[in-house]
Structure formats: C-alpha cells, structure tokens
Amino acid sequence: MGVFIFGYGYSATATARALHRHDPDLSVIGTVRGGASSAADALRLHAFDGTRSSNFGDDLASATHVLVSIPPDANGDPVLRHHSADLAAARDLRWLGYFSTVGVYGDFGGAWIDETAETTPTSARGRQRVLAEAQWRAFAAERGVPLFILRLAGIYGPGRSTFGKLRDDTAHRIVKPGQVFNRIHVEDIGRITARAAIETLDGTFNLADDEPAPPQDVVAYAADMIGVAPPPEVAFEQAEMSPMARSFYADNKRISNAAIKRVLGIELLYPTYREGLAAILAEERQSTEPA
C-alpha cells in the first residue's frame, strides 16, 4: 500500500497520521504549494500549486491509493486537469479518495438531510465542488477503481478552534434565528478516511458531527471553558462580515452522518463540539505543563 496525497494540509495530515498508526512503515507521499521537501512519518513532499503539471517521478505512478484534498476552481478539479493521464497510467491504483464539502447541498431550511438530498448549492464554491465530484466519478468509472467522496462539515481541531479566536479577540456571536451548522473534528476525518482507504470503500458519504448547533452557542460554550467573557451577540443583519463569511449563512441544514458510521461500523471520537473542544483544551494544557 502506497499513498499519494494531493494537498497535504490539515485534514490530509490527520489522515496520514491515522494511516501510520495502522502501519508505521507505510509509504505516504504528498504535494504542497511550496517547494518540495521531506517530513516526518516517512513522508516525501512534492511541489504542486494546481496551475501546472508537476514531475512526481515514479511516486504517483506507483501509488495504490490516491487522496485529493485540493479545492476546485471554476474549470473543475486541477488534479484531473493536469494529471489525469498520470493517474490513468498508475499501474497499481486500487482506490481514489476525494474531500468535498456539505456545501454542495445548498439550503434546506434547517431540515435534516442525508446523501440522497439533491445538490443545489447556493455559492460558486459549492457549484465548483459539484462539478469536481462529477469529474472524479467519470474518471473513476473509466479507470475502474473505487471512488470515496467525503463531504465534510466545518472542520475544527487543535490550532483551528474557537479558543484561538477568543484569545485574539476575533470571535463573534452572530445570531440568525434558526441557523445551525454541523462541524467535524479533524481527528475524526483522519481516522475515518484512513479506514475507508484501507477497506477501499466506494461511494459518497457525509462526515459531520451528531449535533448541529447555533454558532453563537459554540462560542459561548468555549468562552466559559477558558473563563473569558463571550463577545456580545450581534444580529445577522447588523453584523460586519466579509462576503464569503456571510455566504455561509445562506445555507441552513442538519447533516446526517448515519451512512458512514453504518458502513464502517464506527462511532465518532468527538460526536459533538463539547467533546471536541474539551479534547483540544486538554491537549493545550498538557503541552504547556512543565516537563
């Protein structure tokens, strides 16, 4: 088993770590936007920024499992645009994985939805993801390999949590009545993607936590955990937000994760934001304790 990861970022790193827990000697190779380099955990990194093809030598050609964690653009998926021929020629390819987003669904007025819901995205980003998903399905069908598409909710974890925003005074409690969001801890992304790769799972699945919640409640809960005053509530209509931040509030839905848990026979490590935030805070405090 040799794994090649396009876009060795936050979620891909968690996946590589989970794969190495399964097999410490596993070969994992990835791409980054900057220069090629090496890293721990038997990882070798190539440069690939999505604007032109790169020379990966034999690393991509010999991969058995390929995971794509690079966002699409208006023309679709940059990996397929520049390296579809290389993937088609990969002699031992057994599995493809693609990180997508629950933004492909659009707005459902706060209703519960699963993978059978229609994809009617409200943003350009969501429409680009729908296009990229279709491109990967067509390629996988032609190549004859399983394709695992994971539609991710809002990603959080160590170094990317509400605690950091509270400490640097950038957290906001924006209130839009009835609005909820799902989240997913990065460690759950890593372990579930690793399991899917090992089992060469095929299909499209949601990955979100068990409890969609109003964003202002999460901020207040995190503030209480670290003993700081939460920022004041601000009505959505009066909030100063970037166009991108405001666009997230256009979609309101509750994401079911039942399918992926059933197929893999697995439960989340962090089923709600409460467990996830508690684990992040415990890790932070442990890292600051004297040796």
Structure characteristics:
alpha/beta; globular; 291 residues; 9 helices; single chain; eight-stranded mixed β-sheet; Rossmann fold; two-stranded parallel sheet
The CATH topology label is Rossmann fold
Helix content: 25-40%
Relative strand content: 15-25%
Order of strands in the sheet with the most strands? 3-4-2-1-5-6-8-12
Number of domains: 1
Provide mean pLDDT, rounded: 94
Q: Give the CATH superfamily.
A: NAD(P)-binding Rossmann-like Domain
| Euclidean distance between termini CA atoms | 38 Å
How many beta-strand elements?
14
Provide the CATH architecture: 3-Layer(aba) Sandwich
The parts where pLDDT drops under 50 for at least 5 residues are none
Oligomer classification: single chain
Name of the CATH class: Alpha Beta
How are helices and strands ordered from N to C?
A: EHEEEEHEEHEEHEEHEHEHEHH
What's the main sheet like?
8 strands, mixed
Q: Helical stretch count?
A: 9
What structural class should be given to the helix and strand makeup?
A: alpha/beta
Shape assignment? globular
Task: Tell me the Rg in angstroms.
Answer: 19 Å
